[in-house]
Write a structure and sequence with these properties.
This is Transposase. With about 400 residues, this protein is an alpha+beta fold. Helix content is about 45%, strand content about 20%. The longest helix has about 35 residues. The relative contact order is 0.10.
């Protein structure tokens, strides 16, 4: 299993200047390799299935693939000697990034979904470079040894667990400084806990009035980090727009705006992790709706949905549950707010109607009713059924053992 730990770097002024120089050179090489692929693609493609009698014949050459572009790097270091200052594997990783980007444009990812046309990157948008291989003892005390950059101070806010192997390291420049992301390999494979309790289950209904409501009726207030910081962001954004493009004052304002946006994103991420931890420490099984968040944000409430960060939260919840050996189940979201959780009868409600009231006497909050429906739909899930049968068989076996011993 792979996991990633991110730490803050504290480079010296000389090291920070060298990192910025690397990023600038790598950005230029990335754009050059991407342009080489586009040139071949434009010259060798035809929009129709037949060629005209008179046509332009491009220069015949092989398709620039990963290996052919990788072979150009030794010549690059001869024509541009300053590229020799960059670690060879970091330079090779740029070729890999171009390959992955272009392959997704032409053929799609593992699910067959094609990405948009790759864009050339400005120097402000190329912010990360990767070491594909790292030594296990690269961290000594509060220093990390990065080849050709030297020992850089790192803030180890949490230790690397014993037995984890360091596979790759990515250095990223963000608005408030430099970070390093270590990709760690854990030899153990997480499995579902054998003593999981199928009765310790809850359904959660995500919303905009409350961030989520559990099937027990417990709401979690929505923090609205972006909404609360909009006033400050508006002031800084005006400051950016009023200053002359290319000036140092505008560059400082842009940096200040980036820091403010990062502060909002960090607050939201911290809230997601704490909420997921609170749910998983109380319940063994968490059930949520299988939401099409991309489709939902195509509405007037897009800003509030982005501020809530449902997709990010569900991803964090699933990953943390998998590592803990717990279950997170996604169910069909159709009519969870309309159906009655007591009798199953459909009670149509508009979006502004926040109270569910049915003829059977069931009267409760709309989100609470939806959370109960979500929980009930999970009871027929095959994984939960298997765990329930396993738990029941264990209880019967224990009762039989006690009976035999008493006889």
């Amino acid at each position: 299993m792979r996991t990633a730990y991110q730490y803050k770097l504290r480079p010296t002024k000389q090291q920070a200047t060298e990192i910025d120089r690397w990023l600038s050179m790598l950005c230029s090489q990335y754009n050059y390799l991407l342009a080489d692929r586009f040139n071949w693609y434009e010259q060798n493609r035809c929009p129709i299935n037949a060629c005209p009698l008179i046509c332009y014949l491009p220069e015949l050459r092989d398709n620039p693939d990963y290996y052919s572009q990788k072979k150009t790097l030794p010549n690059l270091k001869k024509t541009h000697p300053h590229y020799s200052d960059i670690h060879s594997q970091v330079l090779q990783d740029v070729v890999k990034r171009v390959k992955v980007t272009f392959d997704r444009f032409l053929g799609g990812d593992s699910n067959g979904k094609r990405s948009g046309r790759p864009r050339f990157k400005s120097r402000d948008r190329y912010r990360t470079f990767t070491y594909p291989q790292m030594k296990d003892d690269c961290i000594q005390g509060s220093l990390i040894n990065l080849p050709k950059l030297g020992n850089i101070k790192v803030i180890l806010h949490r230790p690397i667990p014993d037995g984890f192997k360091t596979k790759t390291a990515s250095v990223t420049k963000k608005a408030d400084g430099y970070y390093i992301t270590l990709s760690l390999e854990d030899p153990t494979v997480p499995t579902i806990k054998p003593n999981i309790n199928p009765e310790s289950i809850t359904g959660i209904d995500l919303g905009l009035k409350e961030f989520l409501t559990t099937s027990d009726g417990e709401p979690v207030a929505i923090p609205q980090h972006y909404r609360k910081s909009q006033k400050r962001l508006r002031v800084i954004q005006k400051r950016v727009s009023r200053r002359k493009k290319g000036s140092n004052r505008r560059r400082k304002a842009v940096k200040q705006l980036g820091k403010q946006h990062k502060k909002v994103a960090d607050k939201r991420k911290d809230f997601h992790f704490k909420t997921a931890l609170r749910l998983l420490s109380k319940y063994d099984v968490v059930v949520h709706e299988d939401l099409n968040v991309k489709g939902l944000v195509m509405s007037r409430q897009a800003l509030s949905m982005h501020d809530a960060g449902w997709s990010s939260f569900l991803s964090i919840l699933s990953n943390k549950a998998e590592n803990a050996g717990l279950l997170v189940i996604a169910v069909n979201p159709k009519n969870t707010s309309q159906d009655c959780s007591s009798c199953g009868m459909k009670v149509p409600k508009k979006l502004h109607e926040r109270w569910h009231s049915c003829q059977c006497g069931c009267s409760l909050d709309r989100d609470h009713n939806a959370a109960i429906n979500i929980k009930n739909r999970a009871l027929g899930h095959r994984v939960l059924k298997a765990k329930s049968l396993l738990s029941n068989s264990r209880i019967v076996l224990e009762a039989y053992t006690v009976l035999v011993e008493s006889v």
